[in-house]
Amino acid sequence: MNGAEIKKDGRKKVALNWFINSACDYTCSRCTPHAGDSPLPDLGIDGCLDALNSFAELSTGRDSTLTFYPRQAPFVEPFLTVLKTAGALKAEGALTTIRSANRGNLPADKALLFKEHGVDICQLTIDGPEAVQNALRGPDSHRDTLQAFRTLRRLGIHVSPLVIIVQYNAPHIRDTLRLLLDDGFDDITLQVGIRPYPGRYPQLPGGCKAAGADGNPWTQSLSAAEYRLFLLDVLEFLDTLSSARAAFRAKIIMAHPLYARLFHELGRDSEYRCLRETTSSNNPELLFILRPHGELLCHTNLPALGSFPDLSFKSLFSTSLLLQLLDNPFACHEYGKAAQKEWSRCRDCPVAEYCPPVPSGCSGNRLFLYPDAHCWIC
């Protein structure tokens, strides 16, 4: 990779996922990235405002999305000041969209705060039907979550349900999707982590699988083989929907690249290609991650680009060839194609073009890629 190989046409969309504070009154053991594991203090208000204004400067001429992950149960500084300032920047046209990602049972006063300061979208967690969610999060959690969804909708804030899939709630995905669709919430994200080691494959769909030896269901990620069963379960549900749900169906399928492989195995290649041609974006967003102490990343598997307050988003593009590569969709595509030729399972796969490899590390300006861990082909 060198400067001559990288074209200058950058991505039209930029996004920042901002984990703005490390302290948290909740006890979600699955919380990422690495809540509270840094010995460094969180950024103060001035450092946070520097980061916010720097991102707004980068956003000029691009579609920008700022997503806050405020971990604390009571919202405190610096989040309150940053949220207010972000709302003002959005009103001035410096930011396009403000999102907040929270636990599902968001209290009404926080919903009102989001409305006051221009939050467009709330991504709230929901784990499944009432019995499943309450078993994971406590009595009345499911009721409070649906109440929060409806409160945000009344306030005009778009609700994006997030379903974090583990072995415990995976068997109930059909009921979960039907529950949300029936209540009018169709901007659903299914987040599925994959465990990197072999394990026993439970039959899906079926009964809940008990938590592991540590007693924590959030650590019970699916294996790649279980993920295939999960995708098949979801697809069978999607195939029952009417044409009025075509956009929802396409969104779910396109969000999971391994559907390309599943459709191939089911003899439905042409259907998948048609779906992809009519729904895919050829210019996805460039994503940054900002951790509480100011460390900035462009991928959780890659080293930090630097740390605020001694950093500027725009200056990074003149100093980091790695970032220049990631900012160029065409260059990323060609780089990924070259990497796939080195792996037999990708080289021989008839749908490899739809399953781009993911960053696994870098050395200097050299980017290392690896096949998607969700793939069940050995």
Summarize the structure.
The protein has a single domain, classed as TIM Barrel, CATH 3.20.20.70. 37% of the residues lie in helices and 15% in strands. It has 14 helices and eleven strands.
Judging from the principal axes of the Cα atoms, what is the shape? globular
What is the name of the CATH topology?
TIM Barrel
The string of secondary-structure elements, in order, is: EHEHEHEHHEHEHHHHEEEHHHHEE
CATH architecture classification name: Alpha-Beta Barrel
Secondary-structure class: alpha/beta
Oligomer: single chain
The CATH first-level class comes to Alpha Beta
Largest sheet: 9 strands, mixed
Give the tally of β-strands: 11
What radius of gyration results from the CA coordinates? 21 Å
Account of the 3D structure:
This protein has 378 residues and is α/β, with parallel strands linked by helices. The protein has one domain (11-247, 285-334): TIM Barrel (Alpha-Beta Barrel). The chain is built from 14 helices and eleven strands. It has helices spanning 45-58, 79-91, 108-116, 130-137, 141-154, 173-182, 224-238, 246-254, 259-265, 269-279, 313-319, 321-326, 329-340, 344-347, and strands at residues 13-18, 63-68, 97-102, 121-125, 158-165, 189-192, 286-290, 295-297, 306-307, 358-363, 366-370. The strands form two sheets. The protein has a nine-stranded mixed β-sheet. Strands 10-11 form a two-stranded antiparallel ribbon. A hairpin with a 2-residue loop joins strand 10 (358-363) and strand 11. Helix 1 (45-58) runs parallel beside helix 2 (79-91). The longest helix is centred in the middle third of the chain and has 15 residues, at 224-238. The protein is globular, with a radius of gyration of 21 Å. It starts with 12 loop residues before the first strand and ends in an 8-residue tail after the last strand.
